[in-house]
Q: What sequence folds into this?
């Protein structure tokens, strides 16, 4: 009898514990999967409106991509520059023979003939080693409305020239966007790669680079699951996405669009908002070196959200 009574007591305790565990699990599950409160459409519309305003300011800024007027790849040795047609680099403004850019063993030095024509942070420059954008913070020289910097793509170094008085910038009439649609603000989750996965990215000049992908953004559209590889950029906390879809080449830029997303929270949840997809710099200038979407980031359906494309500035 004593043994039987102990068995009954133990069974009751086990049943009670199991019941409590099941109840807790159900409560936790319900709270975990409980739908989030619906977004205020007016507040969301204002958010997208503010994002578009920031996009406009960036495009029209004095150092934005609408100011690009030249990109010149450097050869080893001296690269003479100036407005005279005999120079290796022919500039639309400035003196006939302004000096040279000397490339030696991956290092670029400028030697100018105009002692007061070029400045760095307001101070005259006659001879100086120039850091490229691969160094994180490139050296940017000024001369009048022009600015100059060195860029590195693969194993090539080039001179990028901007003009804040470029007519493309002065006459720019803004871009067009699809109507804001909360449907394209999608709850997603992050599938992390451990370690980061190398992703081959080709740019418009057919140069290839290996970028690091920390993981894929996984989301659903119309009941189907899709994934996009994200990329990490130096000094940027958000993930960078290069995408294409069935609007590419029709209503949006043919070579795809760009998008930034906030990193996931501690549970791996995140949001991908296609209303913030935008055209790459190549949509506005032929002097950019835009990376193209990798094959796995080309979506088989149209995304009628974000920035449209109607041709280069005239």
A:
């Amino acid at each position: 009898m004593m043994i039987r009574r102990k068995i009954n007591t133990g069974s009751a305790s086990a049943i009670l514990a199991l019941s409590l565990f099941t109840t807790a699990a159900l409560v936790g599950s319900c709270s975990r999967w409980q739908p989030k409160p619906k977004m205020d459409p007016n507040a969301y519309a204002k958010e997208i409106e503010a994002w578009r305003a920031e996009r406009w300011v960036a495009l029209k800024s004095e150092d934005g991509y609408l100011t690009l007027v030249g990109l010149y790849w450097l050869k080893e040795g001296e690269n003479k520059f100036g407005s005279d047609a005999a120079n290796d680099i022919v500039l639309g403004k400035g003196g006939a023979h302004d000096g040279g850019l000397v490339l030696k063993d991956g290092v670029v030095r400028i030697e100018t003939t105009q002692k007061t024509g070029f400045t760095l942070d307001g101070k005259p420059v006659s001879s100086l080693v120039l850091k490229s954008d691969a160094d994180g913070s490139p050296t940017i020289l000024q001369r009048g409305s022009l600015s100059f910097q060195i860029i590195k793509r693969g194993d090539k170094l080039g001179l990028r020239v901007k003009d804040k008085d470029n007519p493309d910038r002065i006459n720019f009439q803004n871009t067009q966007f699809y109507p804001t649609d909360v449907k394209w603000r999608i709850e997603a989750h992050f599938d992390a790669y451990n370690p980061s996965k190398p992703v081959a990215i080709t740019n418009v000049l057919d140069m290839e680079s290996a970028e690091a992908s920390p993981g894929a953004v996984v989301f659903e559209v119309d009941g189907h699951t899709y994934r996009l590889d994200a990329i990490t950029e130096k000094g940027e906390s958000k993930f960078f996405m290069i995408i294409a879809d069935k609007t590419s080449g029709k209503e949006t830029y043919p070579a795809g669009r760009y998008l930034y997303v906030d990193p996931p929270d501690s549970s791996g949840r995140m949001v991908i908002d296609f209303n913030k997809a935008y055209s790459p710099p190549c949509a506005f200038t032929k002097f950019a070196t835009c990376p193209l979407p990798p094959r796995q980031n080309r979506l088989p359906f149209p995304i009628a959200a974000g920035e449209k494309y109607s041709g280069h500035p005239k």
Remarks:
- The longest strand covers residues 185-202.
